[in-house]
Amino acid sequence: MPPWISLDASSGVPYYRQLYEGLRRAILSGMLPAGTRLPSTRALAAELGVSRTTVVAAFDGLLAEGYLEGKVGSGTYVAASLPEELLSVREKVDRGPRPAGSGRRLSGRGALLAQTPTTVARGAGSPRAFRPGVPALDEFPHAAWRRISGKVWRRPPGGLLGYGDPAGYWPLREAISGYLGSARAVRCVPEQVIVVSGSQQALDLAARVLLDPGDAVWVEDPGYIGARGALSAAGARLVPVPVDGEGLTVAAGIEREPGARLACVTPSHQYPLGVTMSLGRRLELLGWADRSGAWVIEDDYDSEYRYTGRPLEALQGLDTGERVLYVGTFSKVLFPALRLGYLVVPADLAEAFGAARELADRHPPTVDEAILADFIAEGHFLRHLRRMRALYAGRQRALVEEAARELPGLLDVSPTAAGMHLVGWLPEGVDDREASRRAAALGVEAPPVSLYGGEPGGRGGLMLGYAAVGEVGIRAGVRRLATALRGLQV
Ligand SMILES: Cc1ncc(COP(=O)(O)O)c(C=O)c1O
Questions:
Q1: What is the whole-number distance in angstroms between the Cα of residue 442 and the centre of ligand 1?
Q2: How far, rounded to the nearest angstrom, does the alpha carbon of residue 137 sit from its chain's CA centroid?
Q3: What confidence tens digit (pLDDT) does each residue in 214-234 have?
Q4: Confidence class for position 71, pLDDT limits 50, 70, 90
């Protein structure tokens, strides 16, 4: 029976009237949105076990009152625009006051989740200059993906469509482990790799498995909002630790909170500043973690993109004390909607993480994992990565060149050796939130650096992603940004 109808034989109200009321309520509450096609009177009568005349009588009443529209030969629909007086009824249906003490209180954990900021001001719709964190979606080799997908679906290997391993599809875990060993000097075996639905789930799982409410955690300041959210939603007490030209200042962390349980860092390409953590700092961080028995989360979200020099090895590869959890994602190399990433955990934690994953959402989508495993095995992954590296290097050059022409005195834009975004620094005293608002008014996306924390009153900057749009769009974006910034007063 459709969820919007319940017919009660004992109520004494005729069926046609009950059906009429049920449909009307469903329309007013939005459960049946404008334009929804209703089942035919014959089908609905059969489904409800009533006569067709009953259904026709209910539909006739609603058609006469403007709730429904009939289109000859193509069925009955919820009216595209409801009359004003009906909408005011809807208002009451939706927002009626709740009786006090009606048991609708959230749990402490729920309240914490509801209060936690969840998204960076990320634009929606087609990417525009300079949306950070989004790759060149139009360059994705969808023909190869489609072919592999067709192959997987033609004869799905045994077990692919049933319940899978909470830690992920074995051939994909093998492929990830092989890739991380050779490209990132991560030391692991496939048993340590847990496939997750993007880094966000890795951060959430790590926070819940490793932290108790009230535990102190070092976070980079400024730092990634997604990580802060996952940690604070698990009840952690965040301890912001300043970032300088060598990355997280470990000495400041030790001074502020030597007994923190965990540190969350982006050593390859600090988010948002873009700094690479020096070897000295890496050793200092690992030394502290070893001595104090703390964990380190290494969020290696865009380390695949390095344009000059040798790719830096992961912090995890230097870790002799098994304190590091390594997090990576396919969101930046393939596309974010794929929702696949990985977490590499010390071997003795693998079982606990597998259990946590199973309780959260059982396991990743196995068919997509199988497609991705073949995509990697057939060489498409590395080929795409190489192409994107060259493409983004060119896009970054275009951004820096155009900025040198259009933005002197307005925004200081220097090249960077890694990643998919850079930070343009505003003149001292210019408010980056105001600058970002003005840019947005001209259709340019450039989130303010202060959104991510940092010293109050510190120098303002704008995040400029350069991966998502082509050079023509980048150059046009720089010119619009110049117009926006010219109007700013110091
Ligand atoms: C620092 C950082 N980590 C991780 C991610 C990726 O998140 P996910 O893998 O959940 O898409 C992003 C995306 O913007 C990021 O900026």
A1: 26
A2: 15
A3: 999 999 999 999 999 999 999
A4: low
Per CATH, 15-94 and 156-379 having the same topology is answered no
Residues 6+ apart with CB under 8 A from 5: 18, 19, 22, 23, 26, 48
Alpha-carbon gap, residue 451 to 467, rounded angstroms? 21
The residue ranges of every structural domain in the chain are: 15-94, 156-379
Q: Report the C-alpha gap between 448 and 284 in whole angstroms.
A: 30
Give the Å distance between the CA of 227 and the centre of ligand 1.
9
Portion of the chain with pLDDT greater than 70, in percent: 93
Ligand 1: residues with CB < 6 A are 133, 198-200, 224, 226, 266, 271, 299, 301, 329, 331, 336, 341
The listed CATH number (3.40.50.300, 3.90.400.10, 1.10.10.10, 3.40.50.2300) that belongs to domain 15-94: 1.10.10.10
**C-beta neighbour count of 12 within 10 angstroms:** 6
Q: pLDDT category, 398, cuts 50, 70, 90?
A: very high
Distances (CA, A) of 279 to 183, 246, 315: 18, 9, 9
- Rg of the chain in Å (alpha carbons): 27
Q: Parallel, antiparallel, or unpaired: how do β-strands 461-465 and 421-425 relate?
A: antiparallel
Those residues with Cβ within 8 angstroms of residue 166's Cβ, 6 or more apart along the chain or in another chain: 354, 355, 357, 358, 362, 363
Arithmetic mean of pLDDT, 69-74 = 73
Question: What gap in Å lies between CA 108 and CA 100, rounded to an integer?
Answer: 19
Q: Give the distance (Å) from ligand 1 centre to CA of residue 395.
A: 21
Residue 84 has pLDDT above 60, yes or no: no
d(CA 250, CA 243): 9
Contact 141, 379 (CB under 8 A): no
> Which residue's C-alpha comes closest to atom 3 of ligand 1?
301
CA 345/CA 231 separation, integer angstroms? 17
CATH number of 156-379: 3.40.640.10
Contact between 93 and 104 under an 8 Å Cβ cutoff? The reply is no
| Phi, psi angle pair for 26, to nearest 5° | -65, -35
CB 199 within 8 A of CB 178: no
Residue carrying structure tokens 């909170």: 257
For the chain, counts of helices (H) and of strands (E): 16, 12
Q: Which residue's CA is minimally distant from atom 15 of ligand 1?
A: 301
- Closest alpha carbon to 44 in 19, 77, 27: 19
**What's the distance, Cα to Cα, between the start and end of the chain in Å?**
65
